[in-house]
Structures are given as structure tokens and as C-alpha cells.
Write a structure and sequence with these properties.
Length: 62
């Protein structure tokens, strides 16, 4: 939960970021696209973490 909160805090307006673990778990399904990873040090989390932006459009389901 702490990792998710820290990653969410790094997201820009309208952006969805996910951890490298989540990206690995869902990438094989092929229905979600991810952008290039961004690296950051997150408070309370050791090491540098990779965060992946989810490629989406707000009106994709209308």
C-alpha cells in the first residue's frame, strides 16, 4: 500500500502510473499498453523504483 501511494504521488495530472511488478503481471494479457518507465527514489522504499505510465484515452469507451 505504501508503494502504491508513493507511485501515485509521482503521477502527473491525468496520468496513471503503476509499479514494475504490476506492469509485469498484466503485460502478457496484451490489452493494456504502457509507456517508457520512469525511475525514481520513493520515500520509505529502498532503492530506485521503475514506474510505468498506462497509455489510455479518457474517451476510449464512449
Amino acid at each position: 500500500m505504501v508503494l502504491a501511494s508513493r507511485i501515485a504521488g509521482k503521477a502527473r495530472g491525468g496520468e496513471v502510473l503503476v509499479s514494475s511488478l504490476l506492469e509485469e503481471l498484466v503485460e502478457s494479457a496484451g490489452d493494456i499498453e504502457f509507456g517508457e518507465p520512469r525511475l525514481a527514489e520513493l520515500k520509505g522504499i529502498p532503492g530506485t523504483q521503475a514506474m510505468f505510465p498506462v497509455c489510455w484515452q479518457a474517451d476510449a469507451h464512449t
